[in-house]
Specification:
The chain is of the alpha/beta class. The protein has three helices and seven strands. Helix content is 21%, strand content 28%. The strands form two sheets. A five-stranded mixed β-sheet has the order 5-4-3-7-6. The chain has a two-stranded parallel ribbon with strand order 1-2.
């Protein structure tokens, strides 16, 4: 993925950054490469200074595919926590990598493996507590 000027800046919590770097080291392939590129352009901030309204791990985020006009709400999780039935999306999926670090109102142009490009805009973010229940 090549970031373009139309992509909003991203901010990552320090603890998420460290854990995501470790996850990348354990996964090969284009998804890990795409996440690595996103992390490379991120501003990292100490956990206690992380502002509200930014997509972080375990956040519940509503985003719009602006091309399709479709809204979706997901929880952004680590790969081992992913569960499509519960709308828990891995950060190593194309949409997960696209959303991490974006603020409410932030937008990104994100290429898909099919060659198409999605245009996503974050509508709302509810911060997670760092862990997920097993409901």
């Amino acid at each position: 993925m090549n970031s373009t000027a139309t992509n909003s800046p991203i901010t990552i919590r320090d603890s998420d950054y460290r854990r995501l770097q470790a996850a990348i080291e354990h996964h090969d392939g284009p998804q890990a490469d795409a996440l690595d590129e996103e992390l490379a352009r991120a501003d990292t901030v100490p956990d206690q200074e992380f502002p509200d309204g930014i997509v972080s791990m375990h956040s519940r985020v509503t985003f719009e595919d602006t091309d399709a006009g479709q809204e979706t709400t997901v929880t952004l999780v680590y790969p081992q926590e992913a569960d499509v039935d519960k709308m828990r999306v891995s950060v190593l999926t194309p949409v997960g990598s696209a959303l991490i670090g974006l603020a409410v109102g932030g937008q990104i142009e994100w290429p898909l493996p099919s060659g198409r490009v999605r245009h996503l805009r974050v509508k709302s973010v509810v911060q997670g507590n760092g862990s997920l229940s097993s409901d």
